[in-house]
Amino acid sequence: MRDAARARTLERTSARAAHATARAERARPHRTPDELREVVARGVAELAGSGIGAPDEATADEVVAWAAREFGDSMAVACSMADAVLPHLVARHSPWVDVLFLETGYHFAETVGTRDAVEQQMDVTVVDVLPRLTVPEQDAAHGKDLWARDPGACCAVRKVEPLHRTLQGYEVWVTGVRRDEAPTRAQTPLVTWDEKNGLVKINPFAAWTFDDLLAYATEHQVILNPLLTDGYPSIGCAPCTRRVAPGEDPRSGRWAGLDKTECGLHV
């Protein structure tokens, strides 16, 4: 069994490298912001139906299929490694798609383990998005445990800036944001123009619930972070995340006790 697993890993590594070579050969210039805004307008007309939450909204699979046709290789998936459902769905339409993992240096061991399992077992290309400063370098520059004194500044340095920098290499990023996660996300559209990052943003799971996510993972045997079913329905950096009691807002465990509800990636 170990030999078979090793063979599958080698086969996947070879296929990933072949895809990277082919992608480089067919690379094309990125479209301008105005051209991409026109793509957003077409996408809204095709996918949104009669409005947010309407019965005729496109399904997650339809949204991802549209994105794969429209953007091809110029698509990135953002994944916190709370689960691998989004990479799994996107890879069905776009094998070896880039999956961006924000390696903040503060993750739970389970999150890093999930990241490694995704890279080893799925037909995707995991890209570690790194801050400019390591944790020790940040401590030296800003003082130890910046996350405790100024979590907004810590997120800006370790998440927002690195992602913004990395996204400049793509035309669209795909996220797993859901409307049921928090009041701040209740109006999340399926497709929109991301003014802050200057590219298209796709949210195929906007209409999903947490139960929908788990059902998909069960049906397709998708990798889940073990913390997800251990009281952590929303998983961030270890110092800033606590367990959530039954019935609580799924994101109430993020920055608990602080006047902060978002890291800045989606606002």
Report on the architecture of this protein.
The protein is of the alpha/beta class and 267 residues long. It has a single domain, classed as HUPs (Rossmann fold, 3-Layer(aba) Sandwich). It is 42% helix and 9% strand. The chain has helices at residues 2-25, 33-47, 60-71, 85-93, 109-121, 135-142, 146-149, 151-167, 210-220; strands spanning 75-78, 98-102, 125-129, 172-174, 191-194, 199-202. Strands 3-2-1-4-6-5 form a six-stranded mixed β-sheet. Helix 5 links the parallel strand 2 (98-102) and strand 3 (125-129). The longest helix has 24 residues, at 2-25. It starts with a helix and ends in a 47-residue tail after the last helix.
Helix and strand topology:
Elements lengths: L1 H24 L7 H15 L12 H12 L3 E4 L6 H9 L4 E5 L6 H13 L3 E5 L5 H8 L3 H4 L1 H17 L4 E3 L16 E4 L4 E4 L7 H11 L47
Parallel strand pairs: 1-2, 1-4, 2-3, 4-6
Antiparallel strand pairs: 5-6
What share of residues are in beta strands?
5-15%
Structural class computed from helices and strand pairing = alpha/beta
How many beta-strand segments? 6
Q: What is the H/E string?
A: HHHEHEHEHHHEEEH
How would a textbook summarize the main sheet?
Answer: 6 strands, mixed
Q: Report the radius of gyration as a whole number of Å.
A: 18 Å
Low-confidence stretches: none
Summarize the amount of helix as a percent range. Answer: 40-55%
Number of helices: 9
Under CATH, the topology can be stated as: Rossmann fold
The end-to-end span amounts to 46 Å
Q: What's the level 1 CATH class?
A: Alpha Beta
Assigned CATH architecture? 3-Layer(aba) Sandwich
CATH superfamily: HUPs
Strand order of the largest sheet: 3-2-1-4-6-5
Domain unit count: 1
Overall geometry: globular
User: Mean of the pLDDT scores?
Assistant: 90
